[in-house]
Amino acid sequence: MNFSKRIIPLSLAALCTCAGLSWGADAPAVPLPFGPAISAFGPAGTGFPVGKLGVLLNYQYCETDGIRKGGSEVNENVRLTKNVGVVKFRYGITEGLDVRTATPIYDVYKKNLVTGRGEHLGWIGDTAIALHKVLMNQAKGSPFDLAVDVGLVVPTTDVSSKSVDFVGNGAWGTGGAVGLTYSTGSHRLDQEVHVYTFTEGSHDYRKPMYVRSTTAWGYAVNNNFDLGAESQFDWNDQSEKNGKNQKDSKNEWYAGPKVAFKYKPGGFAAGLAAMFPMARWYEANTPSEGFRVELKLSKTFDLL
């Protein structure tokens, strides 16, 4: 991938993001930024307002830039074009405790550049449900916000010959997360790490245990716009097929810029983030994404 040619147009395309939908009653002394823009199910450190429902949509578009093994490109025989949506709901149960869900809906176009043949894969994946508990609150005198998640993945996927096992194959999963948020002035820093493991599902396939670390920095230019940058590192263990390790572990690190638009009176935010590969390593021949562009939309509703 020619990094310099891709980063300029995609950075210009990065527009708006949102997270942590808590609209205060009083205007803040300084504008406040929101949390991570990219699609991450981890908690960061903040909570969710009691009695409010958040509806969020993450959309990710990406294209692979070749087949890679280890840290090098092997060939360009296969190209994947991915359109992945994640529908999320959040509801504040009590102060410092909320419930969150995330359901992926996806379409992957796989094209063999040698034969010219292509096919579409996907539809719906398995749903993750998590309880999110705030342990420390910076607004109440703590040095930072700290929260944990306890989660469960339930089999909601539509398993077929067109489904992608890595996204969902009707398996159960469990995991947890810890998140930290630190705010000062118009700056906000988020760090979250979560880990999940899975049972064997359809097609005699067991998804790999994975660890994801997401880091985000945001700066509120004013009450409506943010600037910032984000980083995401994924570690995936080997998957299993028919009880045998597939020797397909991988590590991926992507990072890039973001900007945000927020409309506080309507409880609405929208945006994009552009992510580029910083480091990639694959145990087996694997199609690897040359870039990711992510859109995030959110709206809060007051149910009380």
Major β-sheet profile: 11 strands, antiparallel, barrel
- Spatial strand arrangement across the major sheet: 1-3-4-6-7-8-9-11-12-15-16
- Overall pLDDT metric: 89
Q: Please report the total strand number as a whole number.
A: 16
- Approximately what portion of the residues adopt beta-strand conformation? over 45%
Radius of gyration: 19 Å
Q: What's the number of structural domains?
A: 1
Instruction: Assign the CATH architecture.
Output: Beta Barrel
* Overall SS class: mainly beta
Helix content: under 10%
SSE topology string: HEEEEEEEEEEEEEEEE
CATH top level label? Mainly Beta
Q: Termini distance?
A: 51 Å
Number of separate helices: 1
Give the CATH superfamily.
monomeric porin ompg
Uncertain regions spanning at least 5 consecutive residues: 1-28
CATH topology: Porin
Shape: globular
Describe the structure.
By secondary structure, this protein is mainly β. The chain has one domain: monomeric porin ompg (Porin, Beta Barrel), CATH 2.40.160. It is 4% helix and 60% strand. It has one helix spanning 3-13, and strands at residues 52-70, 72-75, 78-94, 97-112, 118-121, 127-136, 145-154, 173-184, 187-198, 205-206, 210-220, 225-236, 240-241, 244-245, 250-263, 268-302. The strands form 2 sheets. Strands 1-3-4-6-7-8-9-11-12-15-16 form an 11-stranded antiparallel beta barrel. It has a 3-stranded antiparallel β-sheet with strand order 10-13-14, with no helix packed on it. A hairpin with a 4-residue loop joins strand 15 (250-263) and strand 16 (268-302). Mean pLDDT is 89; it is low at 1-28.
